[in-house]
Design brief:
The protein is mainly β. It contains three helices and 25 strands. The protein has two domains: about 5-255, no CATH class; about 265-390, S-adenosyl-L-methionine-dependent methyltransferases, CATH 2.20.130.20.
Amino acid sequence: MAYYSIFPEKDATIYSHPDRINMNTGRDEILELVEEKSPTGEIYYTSRIMMKFANLDIKDVIENKLSGIAKEVTPNNLKICLNLYSTEHKQLANSHVIEVFPLYIDFAEGTQRYESNPPFIATGSFQEANGVTWVHRTELTSSAWITSGFAPGTTGSYTLQAGGGNWYTGSNFRGEDNFFENDVLDTDIDVTSIIQKFSSSYYTGATYPDAIINNGFIIKKPRETEEDGFSYGGLSYFSNNTHTIYPPKLTFKWDDSTYTTGSGATALISGDIFLSLYNNKTEFQRKSKQRFRLTTRKRYPDRTFVTSSNYLNTQYLPKTSYYSVRDAETDEVIIPFDTEYTKLSANSDGMYFDLWMEGFQPERYYKLMFRVDNNDGINIYDEDYFFKIVR
């Protein structure tokens, strides 16, 4: 397939507000980027998100899923994006910028929730948080985030509260998404260059600045936004602990399509097309890779004088044909019609595409849809083709 997703092994929100600097949220269902008022209402304290995808999951995609792509993950047609799915945002400003950087030091997720944390002690002593907080990386009091004397190419910027993470800086260590009023606030942040840095560490043994160890990501607002003394509202996203279909994911996109038709093939570039999924199963094992084949022909064949059936000749959709996958219950788009990465393939047997089932959440039903761009325009085919992923 040309889309493959993996899910975080850990994530948490850390807060710089004085009441929450020692609070762990490793088991919360929600991740937040907020500016919270001080008790006097004159200062706004920011929050940041920590997230990590497992090394083994990333390596598995590179080594076993990216067909024909080198382990260094350097092909021009590969794109890797960080996807967060929005929930109940509050009092939002007209525009937002979200940044992503690779963490310089690893963190512990912890097992606490926002509501279950003890109140802040005025002396600022370390609480019983058993995971990452604004002040500490883990439950150990010796694990404070670096606040001065940063290693070359790293930082840990803050204004009001010391801490908040340590991360690499620079253009090849940064991803960004911009949102404006009325935009969908789900993220699709390009982190290809960061994953390439991780991969170079795995496979070439290189070190900074050519490679870095995967300690995860920090997701935050720009420094000028965090420190300007204003509130831009609260951006809220589902965490890996959500009980919905919207956990964060790291999505690998690449073009694995080929288009080689048999001799004398007919391309269906116009007219009413009949499209059906050949030999579709209703259930697939999560660890499997499946090839879906399409039967295509004109719904009303041209009248000709021949001695054999028109239906015996293989007919093809044009190269500008694509597939999409949706959640069957919610109609949420899991894989969109992507004109670069979800092209249908063709060989002597007809049209087809491949899906790795492990890139989907199990025990759910999914629906396949198709798009054909031809001389008649853009045509969408929704024939109610469903399948289920089982463990």
